[in-house]
Specification:
It contains six helices and three strands, in the order E-E-H-H-H-E-H-H-H. With 217 residues, it is mainly alpha-helical.
């Protein structure tokens, strides 16, 4: 993986086929978490509560302002994507969620699907196969979407503060010998942790490239 740089008027990173597939799968998972059809066509999680999906299965893009209240997401990771507007005023929180949550879900899911297509599609002619090309018009949205994916991974990994984040980095960078066969929980944690660390670095490089380009202009 190579971080973003400015090339030919676009922001360009490099991910090999394995890296692209890993990130695309996690992005599709977050789309599913938001209650939208997965872009990769995989089956949705049948055990997810209906409160985390749109009413009656209608496409979120077709929804307007609701007249009924929306219950806060029960999934902690989804709650981080769709947080409460106020910690102290339930009425304000409920009204804000009613007025904004459908639009927020739609915006986040559309950006996630855009990123998924960038990862799952071959780059345009003239770019190497590993190139992840982000045009300036969508760069801010891609950066925000990487934050959303990282928030979900952070919740799944139990990263609630700097100490837990540092512990994950130390765990992944440890030189201690690993057992030949990892238990399933450890294997999943190390896999998701590696994706989280890679996306954190990738996002930092995109934001840095965007700021450098602003300074240059």
């Amino acid at each position: 993986m190579r971080g973003f740089r400015v090339e030919r008027g676009a922001f360009v990173a490099e991910l090999d086929a394995t890296e692209r597939a890993a990130v695309a799968a996690v992005v599709a998972d977050v789309v599913d978490l938001l209650g939208v059809e997965r872009p990769d066509g995989a089956s949705a999680d049948a055990d997810r509560t209906e409160v985390d999906r749109a009413d009656d299965g209608a496409p979120l893009s077709a929804l307007w302002v609701r007249s009924d209240d929306i219950e806060a997401p029960r999934d902690a990771a989804l709650h981080r994507l769709l947080p409460d507007a106020s910690r102290d005023d339930p009425a304000v929180t409920a009204e804000f969620r009613r007025l904004t949550e459908d639009d927020l879900r739609r915006t986040k899911s559309e950006r996630l699907v855009t990123l998924w297509h960038l990862l799952a599609s071959d780059p345009a002619d003239g770019w190497p196969a590993a190139a992840l090309v982000v045009l300036p018009a969508i760069a801010a949205g891609v950066a925000a979407t990487l934050t959303d994916v990282r928030l979900v991974l952070a919740e799944r990994l139990g990263l609630s503060d700097d100490e837990s984040s540092d512990a994950l980095y130390n765990e992944l960078e440890s030189d201690e010998p690993q057992p030949e066969v990892l238990d399933a929980r450890t294997a999943v944690r190390q896999y998701l942790g590696s994706v989280y660390v890679a996306l954190s670095w990738l996002q930092e490089s995109l934001v840095a490239a965007m700021l450098d380009e602003l300074d240059r202009r």
